Amino acid sequence: MSSNLYKPEEVAKILNISRFTVYGLIKRGELPAYRIGRSMRIESADLENYKRKSRSSELFTGHEGLPADPSAPAHYPGLIICGQDVILDVLSGHLEKQIPGVQFLRRYVGSISGLISLYNRTANIATTHLWDGDSDEYNVPFVRRYLPGQKACVVNLVSRVEGFYIAPGNPKNIKDWHDLIRPDIRFVNRNLGAGARVLLDEKLRKLNIDSRNIQGYSREELSHLAVASCVARGEADVGLGTEKAAMQVRNIEFIPLQKERYDLVILPQDINPQHFETLLSILRSDEFRKEVMGMSGYDISQMGEIIAEL
């Protein structure tokens, strides 16, 4: 065990709770966690901070883990990037090469939790793919909503395709959103705050579809891969996620539904200007772009483009 990082199972023993409770804390954003390879780790400083808040009854409250005092200063090493896509591992590797001596950590949370982490000053960069059904716009409306009064910069990383994961040959003949309420269809959902969950809920709202009529709506998984795996194992007939994940899981097919923009959101005042320029330089470099193109499943046509300065 590292003196600075704990596994969820180790945190469970320290707090005398189940590991499922630990994963619940991570899911809700109450206990920060980082993705290192295929494993999750909790930093000792974050664990001590959680314990201190618990003792003083200052537990996280409100939507998606918003603390009672969101302006309280946070203490964290290096630079923290919120997001789940594997492309962020590649980006972190390039940043480490270009900015030696600075540690880059991943916080494995969904889009809304990432924005709230920026607001709470517990992260430097957040990734989002949040679709607003009223404006048909990605990310910018949510940045305004979750970062009120903050100057923010939205930079495109890639674009991806969201769609349905289904069994090979599409035996249930699933075609669109309305099929989700059929009594013979079992759905598997994403967790609250995830971009795919927001897309689903916005589509249901716009189409006037009652989520209570969807069998499996309350079953939640924490990643696109987990959703795709459920369908591949036959535990669900359909799930929603990215085309990239469909390429990584056997025994499923993919029905494309919507192209989405996967952006980086940064508060310029909370990041070293030189680090920000290095980030843009990497995104616009031939080396990085070719590496991402080789991974398939991504559209890099807007990569490195500043979408909005708010």
Give a verbal description of the structure.
- The strands form 3 sheets. Strands 4, 5, 6, 9, 10, 11, 12, 13 and 14 form a 9-stranded mixed sheet that branches.
- It contains 11 helices and 14 strands.
- It is globular and about 55 Å long.
- It folds into 2 domains: 202 residues, Periplasmic binding protein-like II (D-Maltodextrin-Binding Protein, domain 2), CATH 3.40.190; 99 residues, 3-Layer(aba) Sandwich (D-Maltodextrin-Binding Protein, domain 2), CATH 3.40.190.10.
- Helix 1 crosses helix 2.
- The chain starts with a strand and ends with a strand.
- It has 310 residues and is α/β, with parallel strands linked by helices.
- Pfam families: HTH_17, PBP_like.
The first-level CATH class name of the largest domain: Alpha Beta
Biggest sheet features: 9 strands, mixed
**Number of β-strand runs:** 14
Tally of alpha and pi helices: 11
Structural class: alpha/beta
The CATH fourth-level homologous superfamily of the largest domain: Periplasmic binding protein-like II
Distance between the termini: 42 Å
CATH architectural type of the largest domain: 3-Layer(aba) Sandwich
Shape: globular
Secondary-structure element string: EHHEEHEHEHEEEHEEHEHEHEHHE
Low-confidence stretches: 56-77
What is the CATH topology of the largest domain? Answer: D-Maltodextrin-Binding Protein, domain 2
Domain Helix-turn-helix: 5-53
Pfam families: HTH_17, PBP_like
Domain PBP: 93-284
InterPro entries: DNA-bd_dom_put_sf (IPR009061), HTH_17 (IPR041657), PBP_domain (IPR024370), SinI_DNA-bd (IPR010093)
